[in-house]
Amino acid sequence: MALSCVLEPALSGFNFENSTRNIVLENGSEEGKIKAPKPMKTGTTIAGVVYKDGVVLGADTRATSDEVVADKMCAKIHYIAPNIYCCGAGTAADTEKTTEMLSSNLTIFSMNSGRNPRVVMAVNILQDMLFRYRGMIGAHLILGGVDCTGSHLYTVGPYGSMDKVPYLAMGSGNLPAMGILEDRFKANMDLEEAKSLVSDAIHAGIMSDLGSGNNIDLCVITKEGVDYIRPHKESPFNYKRQAKYKYKPGTTPVLTKTVTQVELELLDETVQMMETAGSS
Amino acid sequence: MEKQHSYSQVKGVSTGTTILAVKFNGGVIIGSDSRASMGESYVSSKTINKLIQVHDRIFCCIAGSLADAQAVTKMAKFQLSFHSIQMESPPLVKAAASIMRELCYSNKEELQAGFITAGWDRKKGPQIYVVSLGGMLLSQPFTIGGSGSTYIYGYVDAKFKPDMSLEEAKQFSINALALAMGRDNVSGGVVHLVVITEPGVKHIVVPGDKLPKFHDE
Protein backbone atom coordinates (compact mmCIF):
# COMPACT_ATOMS: atom_id res chain seq x y z
CA MET A 1 0.00 0.00 0.00
CA ALA A 2 2.92 2.34 0.64
CA LEU A 3 3.69 2.22 -3.06
CA SER A 4 0.32 3.33 -4.32
CA CYS A 5 -1.71 5.27 -1.79
CA VAL A 6 -0.49 8.82 -1.94
CA LEU A 7 -3.97 10.29 -2.25
CA GLU A 8 -5.50 8.15 0.48
CA PRO A 9 -3.24 6.70 3.18
CA ALA A 10 -4.82 3.46 4.42
CA LEU A 11 -6.08 3.61 8.00
CA SER A 12 -5.37 0.62 10.18
CA GLY A 13 -8.43 -1.33 11.28
CA PHE A 14 -12.01 -0.31 10.57
CA ASN A 15 -13.05 3.32 10.90
CA PHE A 16 -16.76 3.71 11.59
CA GLU A 17 -16.77 7.39 12.65
CA ASN A 18 -19.02 8.39 9.83
CA SER A 19 -21.70 5.82 10.55
CA THR A 20 -22.39 7.27 14.04
CA ARG A 21 -22.52 10.74 12.56
CA ASN A 22 -24.95 9.53 9.88
CA ILE A 23 -27.25 7.96 12.48
CA VAL A 24 -27.26 11.20 14.50
CA LEU A 25 -28.06 13.25 11.39
CA GLU A 26 -30.81 10.93 10.26
CA ASN A 27 -32.47 10.80 13.66
CA GLY A 28 -32.73 14.54 13.39
CA SER A 29 -31.93 17.66 15.29
CA GLU A 30 -34.50 19.79 17.20
CA GLU A 31 -35.89 21.33 13.99
CA GLY A 32 -36.80 18.00 12.42
CA LYS A 33 -35.35 14.95 10.73
CA ILE A 34 -32.60 15.52 8.21
CA LYS A 35 -33.11 13.16 5.29
CA ALA A 36 -30.04 11.65 3.68
CA PRO A 37 -29.85 12.93 0.08
CA LYS A 38 -31.16 10.49 -2.52
CA PRO A 39 -28.31 9.47 -4.82
CA MET A 40 -28.95 9.93 -8.53
CA LYS A 41 -28.80 6.65 -10.40
CA THR A 42 -27.66 6.30 -13.95
CA GLY A 43 -30.13 3.55 -14.86
CA THR A 44 -27.72 1.45 -16.82
CA THR A 45 -26.98 -1.84 -18.43
CA ILE A 46 -23.36 -2.95 -18.25
CA ALA A 47 -21.95 -6.38 -19.01
CA GLY A 48 -18.65 -8.17 -19.24
CA VAL A 49 -17.51 -11.51 -20.61
CA VAL A 50 -14.19 -13.40 -20.51
CA TYR A 51 -13.33 -14.97 -23.86
CA LYS A 52 -10.43 -16.94 -25.32
CA ASP A 53 -7.92 -14.10 -25.65
CA GLY A 54 -9.15 -11.57 -23.10
CA VAL A 55 -12.16 -9.66 -21.84
CA VAL A 56 -15.03 -7.85 -23.57
CA LEU A 57 -16.85 -5.11 -21.64
CA GLY A 58 -20.03 -3.44 -22.81
CA ALA A 59 -22.31 -0.61 -21.71
CA ASP A 60 -25.24 1.48 -22.89
CA THR A 61 -24.80 5.26 -23.11
CA ARG A 62 -27.86 6.80 -21.46
CA ALA A 63 -27.66 8.94 -18.32
CA THR A 64 -31.02 9.89 -16.82
CA SER A 65 -32.09 12.52 -14.35
CA ASP A 66 -35.49 11.25 -13.17
CA GLU A 67 -37.54 11.11 -16.39
CA VAL A 68 -35.28 13.17 -18.65
CA VAL A 69 -32.33 11.73 -20.54
CA ALA A 70 -29.54 13.97 -19.33
CA ASP A 71 -26.79 12.58 -21.56
CA LYS A 72 -27.31 10.47 -24.69
CA MET A 73 -23.66 9.65 -25.20
CA CYS A 74 -22.38 9.12 -21.68
CA ALA A 75 -19.20 7.04 -21.35
CA LYS A 76 -19.69 4.30 -18.80
CA ILE A 77 -16.56 2.29 -19.53
CA HIS A 78 -13.83 4.01 -17.55
CA TYR A 79 -10.07 3.80 -18.01
CA ILE A 80 -8.23 2.40 -15.01
CA ALA A 81 -4.87 1.30 -16.41
CA PRO A 82 -3.62 0.53 -19.93
CA ASN A 83 -4.71 -3.08 -19.41
CA ILE A 84 -7.68 -2.58 -17.06
CA TYR A 85 -11.06 -0.96 -17.74
CA CYS A 86 -14.10 -0.65 -15.50
CA CYS A 87 -17.83 -0.35 -16.25
CA GLY A 88 -19.81 1.56 -13.65
CA ALA A 89 -23.49 1.43 -12.71
CA GLY A 90 -25.27 3.24 -9.88
CA THR A 91 -24.70 6.86 -8.95
CA ALA A 92 -23.00 8.57 -11.90
CA ALA A 93 -20.76 10.84 -9.84
CA ASP A 94 -19.65 8.03 -7.55
CA THR A 95 -18.62 5.66 -10.35
CA GLU A 96 -16.79 8.48 -12.13
CA LYS A 97 -14.81 9.65 -9.11
CA THR A 98 -14.13 6.21 -7.68
CA THR A 99 -12.67 5.00 -10.96
CA GLU A 100 -10.62 8.18 -11.34
CA MET A 101 -9.19 7.78 -7.87
CA LEU A 102 -8.40 4.14 -8.53
CA SER A 103 -6.72 5.02 -11.81
CA SER A 104 -4.55 7.69 -10.16
CA ASN A 105 -3.50 5.33 -7.38
CA LEU A 106 -2.56 2.62 -9.86
CA THR A 107 -0.56 5.04 -12.02
CA ILE A 108 1.42 6.14 -8.96
CA PHE A 109 1.96 2.52 -8.03
CA SER A 110 3.25 1.71 -11.53
CA MET A 111 5.66 4.59 -11.43
CA ASN A 112 6.92 3.77 -7.95
CA SER A 113 7.34 0.04 -8.42
CA GLY A 114 8.03 -0.22 -12.14
CA ARG A 115 5.38 -2.94 -12.45
CA ASN A 116 2.14 -3.08 -14.37
CA PRO A 117 -0.84 -3.26 -12.04
CA ARG A 118 -2.79 -6.50 -11.77
CA VAL A 119 -6.57 -6.62 -11.98
CA VAL A 120 -6.76 -8.22 -8.53
CA MET A 121 -4.88 -5.21 -7.07
CA ALA A 122 -7.46 -2.83 -8.52
CA VAL A 123 -10.21 -4.98 -7.01
CA ASN A 124 -8.56 -4.96 -3.57
CA ILE A 125 -8.17 -1.18 -3.54
CA LEU A 126 -11.80 -0.71 -4.61
CA GLN A 127 -13.05 -3.19 -2.06
CA ASP A 128 -11.17 -1.50 0.80
CA MET A 129 -12.43 1.93 -0.16
CA LEU A 130 -16.08 1.01 -0.74
CA PHE A 131 -16.25 -1.03 2.47
CA ARG A 132 -14.91 1.90 4.46
CA TYR A 133 -17.82 4.04 3.25
CA ARG A 134 -20.45 1.47 4.26
CA GLY A 135 -22.44 1.55 1.01
CA MET A 136 -22.74 5.35 0.91
CA ILE A 137 -20.77 5.38 -2.36
CA GLY A 138 -23.29 3.96 -4.82
CA ALA A 139 -20.87 2.34 -7.21
CA HIS A 140 -21.69 -1.06 -8.75
CA LEU A 141 -18.65 -1.90 -10.85
CA ILE A 142 -17.55 -4.53 -13.32
CA LEU A 143 -13.76 -4.57 -13.63
CA GLY A 144 -12.08 -6.40 -16.47
CA GLY A 145 -8.50 -6.64 -17.61
CA VAL A 146 -5.62 -8.73 -18.84
CA ASP A 147 -2.40 -8.95 -16.87
CA CYS A 148 0.55 -11.32 -16.51
CA THR A 149 -1.66 -13.86 -14.72
CA GLY A 150 -4.32 -13.99 -17.44
CA SER A 151 -7.72 -12.44 -18.25
CA HIS A 152 -9.97 -11.60 -15.33
CA LEU A 153 -13.44 -10.21 -14.73
CA TYR A 154 -14.50 -9.06 -11.27
CA THR A 155 -17.54 -7.38 -9.81
CA VAL A 156 -17.38 -5.04 -6.82
CA GLY A 157 -20.57 -4.00 -5.01
CA PRO A 158 -21.23 -0.73 -3.18
CA TYR A 159 -20.92 -2.38 0.25
CA GLY A 160 -17.51 -3.78 -0.59
CA SER A 161 -18.35 -7.31 -1.67
CA MET A 162 -16.48 -8.76 -4.61
CA ASP A 163 -16.79 -11.82 -6.82
CA LYS A 164 -14.66 -13.23 -9.63
CA VAL A 165 -16.86 -14.30 -12.53
CA PRO A 166 -16.64 -15.44 -16.15
CA TYR A 167 -19.57 -13.24 -17.23
CA LEU A 168 -21.81 -10.72 -15.54
CA ALA A 169 -24.29 -7.92 -16.07
CA MET A 170 -25.06 -5.07 -13.66
CA GLY A 171 -27.27 -2.01 -13.48
CA SER A 172 -31.02 -1.57 -13.71
CA GLY A 173 -31.07 -3.53 -16.98
CA ASN A 174 -29.12 -6.44 -15.56
CA LEU A 175 -31.96 -8.95 -15.44
CA PRO A 176 -32.68 -9.04 -19.20
CA ALA A 177 -28.97 -8.85 -19.97
CA MET A 178 -28.22 -11.77 -17.63
CA GLY A 179 -30.89 -13.76 -19.41
CA ILE A 180 -28.99 -13.44 -22.69
CA LEU A 181 -25.63 -14.14 -21.06
CA GLU A 182 -26.88 -17.21 -19.17
CA ASP A 183 -28.35 -18.61 -22.36
CA ARG A 184 -25.42 -18.10 -24.75
CA PHE A 185 -22.24 -17.90 -22.71
CA LYS A 186 -19.63 -20.57 -23.44
CA ALA A 187 -16.08 -20.80 -22.11
CA ASN A 188 -13.30 -19.83 -24.56
CA MET A 189 -15.42 -18.10 -27.20
CA ASP A 190 -13.69 -16.31 -30.02
CA LEU A 191 -13.70 -12.55 -30.47
CA GLU A 192 -16.66 -12.10 -32.81
CA GLU A 193 -18.86 -14.42 -30.76
CA ALA A 194 -17.95 -12.63 -27.53
CA LYS A 195 -18.57 -9.17 -29.01
CA SER A 196 -21.94 -10.19 -30.41
CA LEU A 197 -22.93 -11.80 -27.07
CA VAL A 198 -22.11 -8.67 -25.03
CA SER A 199 -23.73 -6.43 -27.60
CA ASP A 200 -26.92 -8.53 -27.58
CA ALA A 201 -26.97 -8.56 -23.77
CA ILE A 202 -26.76 -4.75 -23.64
CA HIS A 203 -29.38 -4.55 -26.37
CA ALA A 204 -31.74 -6.70 -24.26
CA GLY A 205 -31.16 -4.34 -21.36
CA ILE A 206 -31.87 -1.32 -23.54
CA MET A 207 -35.10 -2.83 -24.87
CA SER A 208 -36.46 -3.98 -21.52
CA ASP A 209 -35.31 -1.24 -19.15
CA LEU A 210 -36.44 2.38 -19.25
CA GLY A 211 -33.26 3.65 -17.68
CA SER A 212 -30.96 2.21 -20.37
CA GLY A 213 -30.82 3.26 -23.97
CA ASN A 214 -29.18 5.00 -26.88
CA ASN A 215 -25.94 3.51 -28.17
CA ILE A 216 -23.85 0.50 -27.18
CA ASP A 217 -20.14 0.92 -26.34
CA LEU A 218 -17.77 -2.04 -26.35
CA CYS A 219 -14.25 -2.37 -24.98
CA VAL A 220 -12.10 -5.34 -25.97
CA ILE A 221 -9.02 -5.91 -23.79
CA THR A 222 -6.34 -8.41 -24.82
CA LYS A 223 -2.68 -9.00 -24.07
CA GLU A 224 -1.79 -6.95 -27.16
CA GLY A 225 -3.87 -3.92 -26.25
CA VAL A 226 -7.27 -2.34 -25.95
CA ASP A 227 -9.90 -1.70 -28.61
CA TYR A 228 -12.38 0.86 -27.29
CA ILE A 229 -15.27 0.84 -29.75
CA ARG A 230 -17.43 3.87 -29.10
CA PRO A 231 -20.05 3.45 -30.37
CA HIS A 232 -20.23 -0.19 -31.40
CA LYS A 233 -23.87 0.11 -32.35
CA GLU A 234 -25.78 3.33 -32.73
CA SER A 235 -29.38 3.66 -31.78
CA PRO A 236 -31.59 3.56 -34.90
CA PHE A 237 -33.77 6.22 -33.25
CA ASN A 238 -31.38 9.15 -33.52
CA TYR A 239 -33.59 12.17 -33.80
CA LYS A 240 -32.49 14.86 -36.25
CA ARG A 241 -33.58 18.35 -35.18
CA GLN A 242 -36.22 19.70 -37.54
CA ALA A 243 -35.24 23.37 -37.19
CA LYS A 244 -32.30 25.53 -36.16
CA TYR A 245 -32.18 26.97 -32.64
CA LYS A 246 -29.59 29.64 -33.40
CA TYR A 247 -30.98 33.07 -34.28
CA LYS A 248 -29.29 35.65 -36.48
CA PRO A 249 -28.15 38.87 -34.77
CA GLY A 250 -30.91 41.41 -35.30
CA THR A 251 -33.78 38.92 -34.96
CA THR A 252 -34.95 40.69 -31.77
CA PRO A 253 -35.70 44.39 -32.47
CA VAL A 254 -34.06 46.88 -30.05
CA LEU A 255 -36.64 49.46 -28.89
CA THR A 256 -34.60 51.78 -26.57
CA LYS A 257 -30.99 52.09 -25.40
CA THR A 258 -29.75 53.95 -22.27
CA VAL A 259 -26.08 54.33 -21.24
CA THR A 260 -25.25 55.12 -17.55
CA GLN A 261 -21.72 56.17 -16.62
CA VAL A 262 -20.52 54.55 -13.36
CA GLU A 263 -18.09 56.81 -11.41
CA LEU A 264 -15.27 54.81 -9.70
CA GLU A 265 -12.94 56.33 -7.10
CA LEU A 266 -9.39 55.02 -6.67
CA LEU A 267 -9.03 54.37 -2.91
CA ASP A 268 -5.79 52.45 -2.44
CA GLU A 269 -2.89 51.28 -4.60
CA THR A 270 -0.33 48.63 -3.58
CA VAL A 271 2.54 47.09 -5.52
CA GLN A 272 3.75 43.54 -4.77
CA MET A 273 7.11 42.35 -6.09
CA MET A 274 7.00 38.85 -7.61
CA GLU A 275 9.91 36.43 -7.36
CA THR A 276 10.82 35.49 -10.86
CA ALA A 277 13.66 33.36 -12.08
CA GLY A 278 16.14 35.35 -14.08
CA SER A 279 14.92 35.77 -17.62
CA SER A 280 17.11 36.19 -20.63
CA MET B 1 -24.92 -21.95 17.30
CA GLU B 2 -27.09 -18.83 17.29
CA LYS B 3 -29.78 -18.56 14.67
CA GLN B 4 -29.10 -15.62 12.40
CA HIS B 5 -32.48 -13.89 11.93
CA SER B 6 -31.34 -10.81 10.17
CA TYR B 7 -30.92 -11.94 6.56
CA SER B 8 -33.75 -9.74 5.31
CA GLN B 9 -31.96 -6.78 6.85
CA VAL B 10 -28.50 -7.45 5.47
CA LYS B 11 -27.70 -4.59 3.11
CA GLY B 12 -26.21 -5.50 -0.22
CA VAL B 13 -25.18 -9.03 -1.11
CA SER B 14 -25.93 -11.59 1.60
CA THR B 15 -24.71 -15.13 1.89
CA GLY B 16 -27.93 -16.64 3.25
CA THR B 17 -26.20 -19.91 3.43
CA THR B 18 -25.40 -23.28 4.86
CA ILE B 19 -21.91 -23.85 6.23
CA LEU B 20 -20.49 -26.65 8.28
CA ALA B 21 -17.29 -28.08 9.68
CA VAL B 22 -16.60 -31.60 10.92
CA LYS B 23 -13.58 -33.10 12.68
CA PHE B 24 -12.55 -36.57 11.56
CA ASN B 25 -9.67 -38.90 12.27
CA GLY B 26 -6.63 -36.95 11.13
CA GLY B 27 -8.18 -33.71 9.93
CA VAL B 28 -11.09 -31.41 9.44
CA ILE B 29 -13.66 -31.04 6.63
CA ILE B 30 -15.14 -27.62 6.07
CA GLY B 31 -18.02 -27.17 3.63
CA SER B 32 -20.54 -24.73 2.22
CA ASP B 33 -23.09 -24.17 -0.53
CA SER B 34 -22.38 -21.57 -3.23
CA ARG B 35 -25.33 -19.20 -3.40
CA ALA B 36 -25.27 -15.44 -2.75
CA SER B 37 -28.54 -13.53 -2.66
CA MET B 38 -29.64 -9.92 -2.76
CA GLY B 39 -32.93 -9.11 -1.08
CA GLU B 40 -35.23 -12.09 -0.74
CA SER B 41 -35.61 -13.03 -4.37
CA TYR B 42 -32.51 -12.49 -6.49
CA VAL B 43 -29.59 -14.88 -6.66
CA SER B 44 -26.68 -12.59 -7.34
CA SER B 45 -24.16 -15.39 -7.66
CA LYS B 46 -24.44 -19.15 -8.12
CA THR B 47 -20.76 -19.74 -7.61
CA ILE B 48 -19.62 -17.56 -4.74
CA ASN B 49 -16.64 -18.80 -2.72
CA LYS B 50 -17.44 -18.97 0.97
CA LEU B 51 -14.40 -21.03 2.01
CA ILE B 52 -11.64 -18.49 2.44
CA GLN B 53 -8.09 -19.57 3.12
CA VAL B 54 -6.55 -17.42 5.83
CA HIS B 55 -3.37 -19.46 6.14
CA ASP B 56 -1.77 -22.65 4.76
CA ARG B 57 -3.81 -25.00 6.95
CA ILE B 58 -6.53 -22.68 8.23
CA PHE B 59 -9.82 -21.88 6.45
CA CYS B 60 -12.81 -19.75 7.35
CA CYS B 61 -16.36 -20.18 6.13
CA ILE B 62 -18.46 -17.05 6.00
CA ALA B 63 -22.14 -16.32 6.57
CA GLY B 64 -24.06 -13.06 6.63
CA SER B 65 -23.22 -9.91 4.68
CA LEU B 66 -20.73 -10.77 1.97
CA ALA B 67 -19.02 -7.38 2.11
CA ASP B 68 -18.52 -7.52 5.88
CA ALA B 69 -17.31 -11.11 5.79
CA GLN B 70 -14.82 -10.47 2.98
CA ALA B 71 -13.47 -7.39 4.76
CA VAL B 72 -13.03 -9.23 8.07
CA THR B 73 -11.32 -12.24 6.48
CA LYS B 74 -8.96 -9.95 4.54
CA MET B 75 -7.98 -8.19 7.73
CA ALA B 76 -7.62 -11.51 9.55
CA LYS B 77 -5.45 -12.93 6.77
CA PHE B 78 -3.13 -9.96 7.00
CA GLN B 79 -2.88 -10.02 10.79
CA LEU B 80 -2.41 -13.79 10.89
CA SER B 81 0.33 -13.64 8.28
CA PHE B 82 2.09 -10.89 10.23
CA HIS B 83 1.73 -12.86 13.48
CA SER B 84 3.12 -15.98 11.86
CA ILE B 85 6.15 -14.07 10.55
CA GLN B 86 6.83 -12.62 14.00
CA MET B 87 6.50 -16.02 15.71
CA GLU B 88 8.51 -17.67 12.92
CA SER B 89 6.14 -20.62 12.88
CA PRO B 90 2.76 -21.50 11.37
CA PRO B 91 -0.09 -19.97 13.40
CA LEU B 92 -2.41 -21.94 15.68
CA VAL B 93 -6.03 -22.33 14.60
CA LYS B 94 -6.95 -20.77 17.94
CA ALA B 95 -4.96 -17.67 16.99
CA ALA B 96 -6.87 -17.30 13.72
CA ALA B 97 -10.19 -17.74 15.54
CA SER B 98 -9.13 -15.20 18.16
CA ILE B 99 -8.32 -12.62 15.52
CA MET B 100 -11.73 -13.10 13.90
CA ARG B 101 -13.40 -12.87 17.31
CA GLU B 102 -11.58 -9.67 18.17
CA LEU B 103 -12.66 -8.06 14.88
CA CYS B 104 -16.30 -9.23 15.24
CA TYR B 105 -16.65 -8.24 18.90
CA SER B 106 -15.05 -4.78 18.69
CA ASN B 107 -17.15 -3.89 15.68
CA LYS B 108 -20.31 -5.72 16.61
CA GLU B 109 -22.57 -2.67 16.01
CA GLU B 110 -21.53 -2.30 12.40
CA LEU B 111 -20.78 -5.84 11.20
CA GLN B 112 -23.22 -8.56 10.26
CA ALA B 113 -21.13 -11.64 9.62
CA GLY B 114 -20.51 -14.98 11.33
CA PHE B 115 -17.67 -17.43 10.74
CA ILE B 116 -16.52 -20.97 11.23
CA THR B 117 -12.74 -21.18 11.52
CA ALA B 118 -11.24 -24.63 11.09
CA GLY B 119 -7.84 -26.05 10.40
CA TRP B 120 -4.92 -28.11 11.50
CA ASP B 121 -1.92 -27.09 13.61
CA ARG B 122 0.99 -28.95 15.12
CA LYS B 123 0.00 -28.30 18.76
CA LYS B 124 -3.60 -29.57 18.93
CA GLY B 125 -4.18 -31.17 15.53
CA PRO B 126 -7.54 -30.62 13.82
CA GLN B 127 -9.77 -27.99 15.46
CA ILE B 128 -13.03 -26.16 14.76
CA TYR B 129 -13.98 -22.78 16.23
CA VAL B 130 -17.22 -20.88 15.80
CA VAL B 131 -17.21 -17.07 15.84
CA SER B 132 -20.79 -15.92 15.82
CA LEU B 133 -22.45 -12.57 14.99
CA GLY B 134 -21.72 -10.79 18.26
CA GLY B 135 -18.22 -12.12 18.71
CA MET B 136 -18.70 -15.31 20.76
CA LEU B 137 -15.90 -17.87 20.36
CA LEU B 138 -16.62 -21.57 20.90
CA SER B 139 -14.68 -24.72 20.17
CA GLN B 140 -16.72 -27.70 18.93
CA PRO B 141 -16.13 -31.13 17.35
CA PHE B 142 -18.57 -30.30 14.57
CA THR B 143 -20.68 -27.28 13.81
CA ILE B 144 -23.23 -25.93 11.34
CA GLY B 145 -24.14 -22.36 10.52
CA GLY B 146 -26.07 -20.04 8.27
CA SER B 147 -29.77 -19.83 7.52
CA GLY B 148 -29.91 -23.37 6.12
CA SER B 149 -28.46 -24.89 9.27
CA THR B 150 -31.81 -24.75 11.07
CA TYR B 151 -33.11 -27.53 8.80
CA ILE B 152 -30.33 -29.98 9.59
CA TYR B 153 -29.79 -29.76 13.36
CA GLY B 154 -31.68 -33.01 13.80
CA TYR B 155 -29.73 -34.75 11.07
CA VAL B 156 -26.28 -33.77 12.31
CA ASP B 157 -27.11 -34.46 15.95
CA ALA B 158 -28.30 -37.95 15.03
CA LYS B 159 -25.61 -38.86 12.48
CA PHE B 160 -22.40 -37.38 13.88
CA LYS B 161 -19.88 -39.85 15.34
CA PRO B 162 -16.54 -38.81 16.83
CA ASP B 163 -13.41 -40.16 15.05
CA MET B 164 -15.00 -40.86 11.67
CA SER B 165 -12.85 -41.81 8.71
CA LEU B 166 -12.34 -39.37 5.83
CA GLU B 167 -14.91 -41.11 3.62
CA GLU B 168 -17.55 -41.21 6.36
CA ALA B 169 -16.98 -37.57 7.21
CA LYS B 170 -17.20 -36.57 3.54
CA GLN B 171 -20.48 -38.42 3.12
CA PHE B 172 -21.82 -36.88 6.34
CA SER B 173 -20.99 -33.36 5.12
CA ILE B 174 -22.38 -33.86 1.63
CA ASN B 175 -25.63 -35.31 2.96
CA ALA B 176 -26.07 -32.53 5.50
CA LEU B 177 -25.46 -29.80 2.94
CA ALA B 178 -27.73 -31.45 0.36
CA LEU B 179 -30.56 -31.69 2.90
CA ALA B 180 -30.19 -28.06 3.91
CA MET B 181 -29.97 -26.83 0.31
CA GLY B 182 -33.09 -28.83 -0.47
CA ARG B 183 -35.16 -27.00 2.14
CA ASP B 184 -33.62 -23.51 2.40
CA ASN B 185 -34.34 -21.18 -0.51
CA VAL B 186 -31.29 -18.98 0.04
CA SER B 187 -28.86 -21.92 -0.01
CA GLY B 188 -28.08 -23.72 -3.22
CA GLY B 189 -25.74 -24.14 -6.13
CA VAL B 190 -22.87 -26.58 -5.69
CA VAL B 191 -21.29 -28.05 -2.59
CA HIS B 192 -17.74 -26.91 -1.85
CA LEU B 193 -15.69 -29.05 0.53
CA VAL B 194 -12.16 -28.48 1.75
CA VAL B 195 -10.34 -31.33 3.49
CA ILE B 196 -7.54 -30.05 5.75
CA THR B 197 -4.97 -32.54 7.05
CA GLU B 198 -1.33 -32.41 8.06
CA PRO B 199 0.06 -33.23 4.59
CA GLY B 200 -2.13 -30.70 2.82
CA VAL B 201 -5.39 -29.21 1.68
CA LYS B 202 -7.78 -30.69 -0.90
CA HIS B 203 -10.70 -28.86 -2.51
CA ILE B 204 -13.66 -30.99 -3.62
CA VAL B 205 -16.62 -29.67 -5.62
CA VAL B 206 -19.86 -31.64 -5.88
CA PRO B 207 -22.10 -30.19 -8.62
CA GLY B 208 -25.82 -29.86 -7.93
CA ASP B 209 -26.86 -32.79 -10.09
CA LYS B 210 -24.42 -35.17 -8.37
CA LEU B 211 -25.79 -34.46 -4.89
CA PRO B 212 -27.65 -37.25 -3.08
CA LYS B 213 -31.42 -37.07 -3.50
CA PHE B 214 -33.78 -37.42 -0.58
CA HIS B 215 -37.34 -38.13 -1.83
CA ASP B 216 -36.96 -35.38 -4.41
CA GLU B 217 -39.55 -36.50 -6.94
UniProtKB/TrEMBL annotation, chain A:
Q: Which reaction does it catalyse?
A: Cleavage of peptide bonds with very broad specificity
Lineage, opening ranks: Eukaryota, Metazoa, Chordata, Craniata, Vertebrata
Top-level taxon of origin: Eukaryota
Query: Annotated Gene Ontology MF terms?
Result: threonine-type endopeptidase activity
Residues forming the Proteasome beta subunit C-terminal domain are: 240-271
Subcellular localization: Cytoplasm; Nucleus
Q: Which PANTHER family match?
A: METALLOPROTEASE TLDD (PTHR32194), PROTEASOME SUBUNIT BETA (PTHR32194:SF9)
Alphabetized, the UniProt keywords read:
Cytoplasm, Hydrolase, Nucleus, Protease, Proteasome, Threonine protease
State whether it acts alone or in a complex, and with which partners, per the record. Component of the proteasome complex.
- Annotated catalytic residues: 44
Purpose of the protein: The proteasome is a multicatalytic proteinase complex which is characterized by its ability to cleave peptides with Arg, Phe, Tyr, Leu, and Glu adjacent to the leaving group at neutral or slightly basic pH. The proteasome has an ATP-dependent proteolytic activity. This subunit is involved in antigen processing to generate class I binding peptides.
Q: Tell me the protein's name.
A: Proteasome subunit beta
Q: Name one GO cellular component term.
A: proteasome core complex
TrEMBL record, chain B:
Checking InterPro entries in the record gives: Ntn_hydrolases_N, Pept_T1A_subB, Proteasome_bsu_CS, Proteasome_sua/b, Proteasome_suB-type
The secretion signal range is none
UniProt cross-references to Pfam families, sorted A to Z: Proteasome
Substrates-to-products reaction catalysed = Cleavage of peptide bonds with very broad specificity
Domain of life, per UniProt, equals Eukaryota
Q: What is its main location?
A: cytoplasm
Q: What does this protein do?
A: Component of the proteasome, a multicatalytic proteinase complex which is characterized by its ability to cleave peptides with Arg, Phe, Tyr, Leu, and Glu adjacent to the leaving group at neutral or slightly basic pH. The proteasome has an ATP-dependent proteolytic activity. The proteasome is a multicatalytic proteinase complex which is characterized by its ability to cleave peptides with Arg, Phe, Tyr, Leu, and Glu adjacent to the leaving group at neutral or slightly basic pH. The proteasome has an ATP-dependent proteolytic activity. This subunit is involved in antigen processing to generate class I binding peptides.
Assembly, per entry? Component of the proteasome complex.
User: Which PANTHER family does the annotation name?
Assistant: ATP-DEPENDENT PROTEASE SUBUNIT HSLV, METALLOPROTEASE TLDD
What family does this chain come from, according to its entry? Answer: Belongs to the peptidase T1B family.
> What's the protein here called?
Proteasome subunit beta
Please report the organism this UniProt entry assigns to the protein.
Cirrhinus molitorella (mud carp)
